[in-house]
Amino acid sequence: MAASTEGTELKLVSSIRYKFAAVSNDEKKLSEALQSMLTPLLEKAGSQHKVTFKAFMSVKNFIQPLGVVLPVAALLEQYKRTTSPIVKQLDLAFIREGITRLDQSKRRGLLPIVLHDISNETNSASAAGFFNIFLRLLLEIKVPGRGSPEDLALRGSIGLSNSSDAKYVANWLGKLFLLRQDIALASDDEITAKLDASPSGLVKEDIAFLRNKDPKSWQPNIPNNLSLPECKAKAVAFLASGAFKDDERYLPIICAAGSADSRVSSVADDVLKRASVDLESENVVQSLFVAHSAFPAAHRIQILRLLSKSAAACTPKQRVVDAVKEDFALTTGERAPIVGLEALRLHKALLGFLSWIAQNGSGSRAADTHMGPGLVVILKDYILGQGWPAPNPRNNQSQSQDEQRLRANAYETIGTLARVSSLDHKAKDSLLKWLFDSLVSDPSPDVVVYIESSLSSMMNLFRSTDTAQHRDLEVLLLEYMNLPERQNIRTARHVAVRFANNCLPYNNIRARWICILALSAGSSERRDVLEEGQRGLDPWWATKLHPEETLKLPNWEELGKFLFNSSARQVEEYEMAVDQTSRYALYSDDRLQAFPVAIHFLKHMFFLTALNENTVEIDWESRLDRRIHNDLSARHSIRNYIKTVEPKSILQFLNAAFDGLRDHPNIGAEDCMTCLADILPFTPAETVISTISDRTHELLLLRGSNNPKVRQLVSKTFGILAPWDDRASLNVARLRETLSSTDEPLPSLSAQYQCSLMCLASYLSRAKHYGRLSPDASDHIQFLNRCSFSGLMGTDTGIQNAALDSLAQLWTADIGWPSEESDLNAIIDRLTYLALQGNEKSIYALGRLAIPRSSELLQNGESAAGKALEKLFSLSEIKRTEVHFAIGEAIAAAIARWDSESVQLSVDVQPAGHADDIIGSLRKKPEQVSATLDKFINDCKETKPSLIKASGIWLFCVIQYCSSLPDIQSRLRDCQVAFMRLLTARDELVQETASRGLALVYEKGDASLKGDLVKDLVGSFTGTKTQLKVDGDTELFDAGALPTGEGKSITSYKDIINLANEVGDQSLIYKFMALATNAATWTARSAFGRFGLSTILSDADLDPKIYPKLYRYRFDPNHNVRRSMDDIWKAIVKDQTITIDAHFDAIMTDLLKSILDGREWRVREASCAAIADLISGQPYLKYEKYHVDIWQVALRVLDDQKGSVRAAALKLCMGLSKTLVTQLKENNSSSSAQAMIAQVLPFLLSDKGIESSVKEVKLMTITTVLDVVKTGGDTLKPFIPTIVTHFLGLLSTIEPDQVNYYYQRVSEEDREGLDKIRSTLATRSPLFECVVSCLRFADEAVMSQLAPQLITTIKSALGMQTKIGCSEVLSTLVLRHTIFLAPYNAMFVKSLHTQILDRNNEVSKSYAKSAAYLLRSASSETRDRYTTRLIDLYFAAEDEVRRQKVADAVLAIAKVSPDAFTDMETRLLPFAYFAKFDTDEYVSEVCDAAWDQHAGGNHTVKRYINEISILVSKGLETSKWALQHAAAFTVASMVTALSSATGKGGQFSESDIQQIWPILDKALSLKTFKGKERLVTAYPLLIKHGKKLWEGNVATSAQTKKIAIREAKRNNDEYKPFAVEALAEYAAIREDIDMYAEVVALVSEYLALDGEAYKLTELERKATEAALKAVLTAYNRPRMQSAPASVLSNIATVVDGAKRSISMAQDTFFTNTLDLLDQAAESRITTNIDEDLLATRWFRLLLQDEAGVVLESQRMARAKTLLAFAGAWKKGVFGAIDTQGSLYREIQQKLMQMKVEERSLDVQMLLDQVLEKLKG
After folding, report:
1. What's the average model confidence in pLDDT over 1679-1687?
2. For residue 789, which phi and psi values (nearest 5 degrees)?
3. Is 685 helix (H, G, I), strand (E, B) or coil?
4. Three-class DSSP labels, 1224-1270
5. Which listed site, 838, 1035, 1276, 1728, has its alpha carbon 20 to 30 Å from 762?
6. Which residues form the Proteasome adapter and scaffold protein ECM29 HEAT-repeat domain (predicted)?
7. Would you say residue 1648 has pLDDT above 80?
8. Is 858 helix (H, G, I), strand (E, B) or coil?
9. Measured CA distances, 191 to 196, 199, 223, 306 (Å)
10. Which of 1001, 1004, 1029 has its CA nearest to residue 1016?
11. CA 828, 832, 833, 836: dihedral to nearest 10 degrees?
12. Phi, psi of 486 (to 5 degrees)
C-alpha cells in the first residue's frame, strides 16, 4: 500500500513537471499552468517519501523567470489551510517571490486574504514570515482619508472584522514602532548589549520576529528589502484608519507617538487626541503602567501624560511608587542612561503626574501610609541630587533654566503630596524643617516662590490639638523667626508667622509672641510680614483662619507672665532670649519695638476677657474702645471682673507699662500711657492704685512730650494715682513750680506748662472725688483758678485748651468757682466767644459751668447756669455738624448735671466718702429739663434750616444722655412727633439724628407709643405723597440743584415765589412744589434705616404688601435710600430665604410691572437691580415662568434714555447670561438647563434680541449667545442651524463704520489688501468662533436642518464677511463632520457653482477653497459636474476676471484636495496645462502652480496629448483672442515638451502627430500676435520629430513648406526674425529638398544694408541677424556631404554681398560659420580641383572688418572659426593643401601677426592651435 502511495505521488509530480516543461518557453502559458497546478504540487512537498520530494524540488526551476506570474492568492489560502510546516515554508517563499511580480492593484487585493485569521498563526517561525509579507503588502495600500465612507468601511473590507486579528496586527505594529534602526541591523550577538545599553521596550524574541529571523532583512540598499522608516510611516497611517478601534490601537499608537520620526509621531499624537478610550478603566490603567515599565523614555513620557488625565491612575499606590522610582533611576547617577533634554522632558512629565496624584488622590488619604510619603522621599532625593540647598552649577544655561523650573515644580509637588498624605509626626517635622532650610538657602527667587507654596500646602498637616506637637512647632518657628537675614540666607519670618497663625490656636501664647516679633521691626520689616503679624494678633482674623473652632482668647494673666516676667530665671531655648541681663529678657535691643505691641495686645485681651467677648466683628477694636469709654454697663462689668482677678497680675501689667515709659520713653510711650489710662479707672484703689501710686512721679517726666495725646493721658493717669501717693505734695510742688515760673511760657516750655496745668486740675478734681483733698487744697485750687483764668484769656491756643480742660474738671467736681462776679462774667463771655468759633472744649466747659451748686445762685435775677444755657442755645447758626453734638452734650450736662450719662462717663475714678453726697446734691434741674424740651420741640417745627438742624441734634443728644429721667419719659410722644417731622429734612445728618431719636423713643416708650410710631412709619413708607408745610425760608432743594443761569440757584420757597413773579407764570409754584414733594418723599424714605429705626419695624406686624416695595427700595439709586431700606429689610426679615420664597411671585410681579410702568427712572433702575439680585442663586424652576419676561423687559430698558438705567439693565442681562452659562457649565444636560435654553434662545434669536435695531440690545444678545454656545453642549443641537445662520449674517453687520468709509475711498489695489485683513478678522472674530463651537455638536439631525438653511444663507449673503464665514463653515464641516455631510455634499457643491465667481477676490477664493474641501468626499458625478462647470466657465469667460476665478478654483483643488485632483487629473491636469499659457499673468501663474504641484514633467504632457489637444482645439474655435492665443501657446509648449521627452533623434508617434498637426496648422494660420514667435519656433520641432507626417505625403510636404515660407513672409517686424530662423531650420531639416535659393531670395533684402549699422533700429538689427543666420544654415545637408565645396562656394557668394551685415552681426556670423565649416569637414570628401580661390574667399571673409572685431568674446569666436577653417582645409575641403603654398604662407603670416597683436592669452592659445593645425 505504501509503495502504491509513493508511486501515485511520484506519478503526479512527474506529470505536473512534464506539463511545466512543455510550456517552459512561453512565460504566459507557464503562468497559466502554475495558476492551476502549483498549489496541488506544493501539497506533495510535505510527502514523507524522499523520491517524491526530490522530484518536487526539480520543479522549482520552472518559476525562476521573472516574467512568470505565480498564483499568490491561492498560495495564501493554502498557507492558511495546511498544517505541514514544510508546505508553509514553501508557500511563504513562493508568496514572497510572487508578490514582486504582481501589479499594484493585485497586490492590494491580497491584503484582506493575509489579514483574515492572521491571529490564528501559532508557529513563531512561519508567523514571522507571514507578518513580513503583511508589511510588504501594507506598503502598497492606499489608506483612505479619516472619516470618509471608505475609511469607515475599511475594517470589513480589509479583513479585520475579527477583533482578535485587529489586536494581533496592532500589537505587532506597536512593537514595530519600538524597533530602532541600530537594533534592526545588529547581529544576534550584539542585540543583548544594545538592549542593555538603551532599552527599546522589546525582547530578543520580538526582535527576531520582526526581523523574520534574518539580521539583514531591514538592511537598506538590498533589493526586495523593506525600509524601516517607510514601514513605520505606513503602519501609523494604517493604525489611524477606521480598520482599528480605539481600544485596539491605544498602546500601539503610544509606541508610535514616542517615535523620533515626525511623520509617525504627528499622526500618532493626533490619534491620541481624538481617542475615546476610557482612562478610568482599571484594565486600561493597568496596561499603561505595564507598558510604562517596559517602554523607553520617550514613550514613558507619553504614558505619564495620559496617566495624568486619569483619576483611576491614583489608586494603584505601589505601581505609582514603582513607576516614579524607575523613571528617576533612569535619569540620576553618574552613568544615567537618560540625560540631557530627554531627561528633562521625562522629569517634567513625572512631576506633572505626581501633581495630578496630589490633586486627585486625596480621597484615600486616611489609608495612604505608603504612596504619599514614598513619593515625597523620591522627590526630595531628586532635589538633593541636583544639589542642595543650592543646585550644582551647569554649563548649559538653557538646560539649567529648565532644571530650575523642574526643581521649583518638585518643591511645590512635595507640599501638595504631603498635604494629602498621612505622615507621622517625626516625618512631618523633618520635612518642614527641610523646606524651611530650603526656603532660607535657595539662591533662586523664582524657586523660593514654589517653596513657599509647598509650605503653605502643608499647613493643614500641623493643625493638631496635640500640645506636644504644638511645642515642637513652636520651637521650629521661633528658630526661623530669630534667624537673621544675611548674605546667602533669606528670612523665613513671613512663612513662620503664617504657620503660627494657621497651625496654632489663637490662645497659644507663643504663637502670639511670634506675631508680636513679626511687628517688632516696624517700618523696616517687609510689608507681608507686618500684615501677617497684625492678622495673628487680630481675634477676628482668628475666626476666619479657624472657622471650625470656637474663638478662645489667650489667658491674659498667663500671657502677661510670659511677656513681662522680670524674675531671674533660666531662659528657655524656645524663647530665643539673648539679653538675659535686662529686666525683660524677651526684649533685647533689636526687639524693643515689640514691647509696645505686647502692651497693646495684652490690654485688648484683658478687656475682651473682662467683657466676656467671644464673638468679634471686623471692627472689634473700635467697638471695644467705644464700650470701654461710652457704655456705663460695660464699665460696671469691667470693674466687677477686676474684683475677681488677683491684683498681682494687674500690677505686673501696669508696672510693665511704667517700665516701658521709664526705660524707653521714645518707643511706644503712647501705647503704654493708653494702657495705664484705660485700665486704672477700673481698678480698686485699695489694692491696685494705692500700691502703684508710688510711681506717680515717673509720669511727670513725660510732661514735655510733643504728643498732645500723651500729655492728656499723663494728666488723666496722674489725677488717678496722685491722691494715693504719699509724696503727692512734692509732685504738686513741682507742678506749681512750673506754673509759677511764668504766665506766658516759651514755646519750648509750652507743652510742659499745659501738661502741668492739666495734671494739677486732674489731681484736685480726683482728690475731691476720692475724698482725699489735702488741708492746703484751697490754696492749690485758688492758684489753679488764677493760672486757668490767665491761660483762658491768653492767646496761646494750647494753653487755652489746657485751661478749658482744667476749669471743666474743677466745675464737674464742684470746686474752683470764681470768687468774683466779674471773673465769672468774663469767663462766660470768653467761653461764648470761643464757642462761636467752633471750639468744642469751650462748649464742653460751658456745659460744666452749670453743674456746681454755685451756678444756681441768682445775680441780678439771673443764674450762671441760666446764662450758660442761653449762650449754648445761641449757637444754632454754627454750620459744623460735629460742634452741634458737642453743644447737645453740654446742654444735657447743664440741665441734668450728674444725672446725665455724659457727666458720669467723664469721671474716671470711683467716688468715695463724702464725695457721694456732693454728687447726690448735683442732680437734674426739672424746670430746666422741661423748658429745654419745650424749646427743642417747638424749634423742630420751624422752617429755618439751621435752627431745625441744631434743634434736632440737640434734642437727640438730650434724649441720648438723659433718657432715664422721668421728665424725658413723659415727653417721648412729643419727641416722636418732632423727629417724624425731621425725617423730611434735606440735611442727611438731620435725618440720621431723627431716625436715631425715633429708635430711642421707641425703645424707651410703652406699648401704645410703640404702636403709634410703627403706624406713622409704615404710612410714610407706603404712601406716595408727603405733605410739605412751608414758609418763605423753608429749604426745598439743595444748593445748585436748580441753577438760574446767573450763578445762583433756587433753594427755598421764597426763591420759587420770586422766580414765578419775575416770569409771570404762577403755575411754576405748583410745579416746583410737586417736584419738592416728590424729593421729600424719597428723602424721608432714605432716613428709615438709620441707626436703629429699622428695629421699630422689625417688632411690628406688617402687611405682606410691604415686601415687594421694600425689596425694590433696597436697590434705589440713591445711596441713602438704599442703605436705609437694606437696614430695614435686615431688621424685619429674620430669615431672608424663607421670606423671599414666600413672597417670590409677588416681588417678581411687582418688579416686572415697575420696569415697564415706572414713570421715574429711579424705579426702572431699581427694578433692574432688584430682579438681578432676586434670581441670583435661585433654582431655575422657581422663575421659569418669568424668564422670557425678564429678558424682554431687560432688553427693552437697555435702550432707556437714562444712562444709569441702561447700565442697570446691562448688569441684569449679564447676570441672566452668567446664570445661564453657569447652569450649562455645571450640567448642560439637566432639565433646568434644557428648559432655559429652550425658552431663552428662541427669544434671543428673534427680532427682539439679536435682530434688534438697537445697537446695545444686539451687542448684549450676541454676547449672551456666545457664552451659551461655549457651554451649551448637546442641548444646543435644536438651535444650531438658527445660531449659525444668524451669526453668519451678523459677521457683516458688526464691522465698524469707519472701515467701510475707508474702504469706499481707497484704490482697487489697496482694497485687495484691506479685503485680506477683513476676511482674516471675520474668521477670527468671537462671532465666528461661536459658529465653529456650534458645529462641534453637529450630527445627522442637525445637518438635516442646517444644510438647507446654510445654502439659503450662501445664496442670499451680501456682506463680504458673511460670505467668508459661509465658506469657512463648509470647510469646517468637511474637516470635522464628513460622515454627516455626505448626503448634502452634492447640494453644497452645486450651490458654489456661482459663488466661486463672486466679484470680491477674497470671497471667490474662499468659496473655491470650500468647494475643494467638499470634493474630498464628493461622488464622482459631483466632481465631474463641478470640473466640467469650471472648464465651461473658463471658455465662456468674456474677460480675464472670470478666468482668474476659475484658475483659483483649480489651484484650490490641487492644494486642498490633492487626492480629488488626482482622481480627476485626466480633466484638470490638461486644463491646468492649457490655462497656464493664458495671456493673463495671474491666471498663468496660478495654473502653472497647479500643474507643477501634480505633474511638472514633459512626460506628463506626452501622456495627456489627446486631452490637451481637445482643449486647444476648443480654444482655437472660440472668437475670443485671449483663448486663441492661449491655445497657440499651448500647442507650442506641447511640441517643445514632446521634443524634450522624445530626445534628440526620436520621433513622435503617429497618433500624437495626428493630434497635433491640425491644431498647429490652425494656430499658425492666425494673424500675427504678440508671442506668436513661440509657436513658429516650435514648428520646426514638429517637422524634425514628425517625419511620418510629411515623408511620402506630397500634399502634406508641400503644405508644411508653404506654411514655413508663408510665416517668413509676414510683415510683422517683431515676428519676422523668428519666422526667418524657423524657415532656415525647416530648410535644414528637409533633406529631401534644397530650399537654399528660396531662402536666400526671401532674406536677401535684409542683407543689403544701405546705411551705417548704428542707424539701424533694434528690430532691423534682429532681422539682419536672422537673415545672416538663415543663409549660413539653410543649406541642404545631404548636398553638403556630397559636394561641400559647392555648398561653401554658394554660401560664400551670398555672404560676400552681405559684408556690411557681417560687421553688424559678427557673433551670429562666427557662430554659424563655425558650424558650417565643421559640417563641411565631416563630409570627408576631398576636392580634387584647386580650390585655392574658395579657401582664400573664406579666409578673407573671416578676417574682413578686422578692426571691427573688438570684444574678446568676438575674437575668441573668430579664432575658433579659424581653427574649424584650418581643420576643413587640412581635410581637403578646399583642395589639396600642398598646392596652395602661397595661401598657406599668407594665412600663416597673418595668424602670426594676429597673435602678436592679440592681448588675450586664451585667444593667443587658440591662434597657436590654428598654426599647429596648419603645420600638421
Report:
1. 81
2. -65, -40
3. helix
4. HHHHCCCHHHHHHHHHHHHHHCCCCCCCCCCHHHHHHHHHHHHHHHH
5. 838
6. 1276-1435
7. no
8. strand
9. 9, 10, 24, 31
10. 1001
11. 170
12. -145, -170
Q: Residues 543, 583: contact at Cβ < 8 Å? A: no
- Locus of grid cell 526620436: 1546
Cell numbers describing residue 646? 488677683
pLDDT at 1240 over 70: no
User: What is the distance between the alpha carbons of residues 896 and 884, in angstroms, rounded to a whole number?
Assistant: 18
Q: Where are the domains of the chain?
A: 1-102, 145-275, 278-462, 467-552, 829-854+864-906, 1102-1170, 1179-1286, 1687-1815
User: In this model, does residue 352 exceed pLDDT 50?
Assistant: yes
In the beta sheet, which residues pair with residue 862? 859
- What lies within 8 Å, CB to CB, of 280 at 6+ separation is 310, 311, 312
The span from the CA of 767 to the CA of 438, in Å, is 63
Look up residue 1512 and give its three cell numbers.
486647444
DSSP structure class, residue 859: E
- 143, 241 contact by CB (below 8 A): yes
Are the CB atoms for 17 and 55 separated by under 8 Å? Answer: yes
**Cβ partners under 8 Å of residue 36, min gap 6:** 71
Closest CA to 1761 of 1797, 1698, 1711: 1711
Q: Are 460 and 419 in contact (CB under 8 A)?
A: yes
Q: pLDDT of 1394-1434, one tens digit each?
A: 888 888 888 888 888 888 888 888 888 888 888 888 888 88
Residues in the chain: 1816
* Nearest by Cα to 1192 from 1142, 1233, 1222, 1152: 1152
CA atoms within 13 A on the CB side of 984: 26
Name the H helices within 963-1046. 966-969, 972-982, 988-1004, 1007-1022
1686-1732 pLDDT, tens per residue?
A: 888 888 787 777 767 777 777 887 888 888 778 877 776 665 555 55
Give φ, ψ of 1035 to 5 degrees.
-85, 115
In angstroms, the CA 198 to CA 688 distance is 85
CA triplet 1635, 1641, 1646: central angle to 5 degrees? 125
3-class state of residue 489 by DSSP: strand
Cβ atoms of 440 and 482 within 8 Å: the answer is: no
pLDDT tens readout for residues 1124-1152: 677 667 767 777 778 888 888 888 888 88
Q: How far apart are CA 236 and CA 1737, in angstroms?
A: 78
User: Is residue 1443 a contact partner of residue 1434, using CB atoms and an 8 Å limit?
Assistant: yes
What one-character-per-residue DSSP string does 792-846 give?
HHSS-HHHHHHHHHHHHHHHHTT----SSHHHHHHHHHHHHHHHHTT-HHHHHHH
Distances 1652 to 62, 791, 1613, 1644 between C-alpha atoms, Å: 83, 128, 20, 17
Grid coordinates in use for 196?
542593555
Instruction: Say how far apart CA 1517 and CA 1521 lie, in whole Å.
Output: 10
Q: Are strands 862-863 and 858-859 parallel, antiparallel or unpaired?
A: antiparallel
Helix (H) or strand (E) holding 126: helix 124-138
Look-up of cell digits 545672416: 1668
CA 473 vs. chain centroid, Å, equals: 41
Distance CA(1189)–CA(1195), nearest Å, equals: 10
Burial bucket for residue 1191 (CB in 10 Å: 0-12, 13-18, 19+): buried
Q: What is the pLDDT of residue 30?
A: 65
CA distances from 313 to 178, 292, 798, 920 (A): 24, 12, 78, 84
Q: In 442-466, which ranges are continuous DSSP H helix?
A: 445-457
pLDDT band at 759 (very low <50, low <70, confident <90, very high): very high
Place of cell 500676435: 1569
- Measured from the Cβ of residue 1744, the count of other Cβ atoms closer than 10 Å reads 15
Alpha-carbon dihedral of residues 201, 203, 209, 210, nearest 10 degrees? Answer: 30
Question: If you search the block for the grid coordinates 477653497, which residue do you land on?
Answer: 1409
Residues 6+ positions from 1190 with CB-CB distance below 8 Å: 1152, 1171, 1175, 1183, 1212, 1216
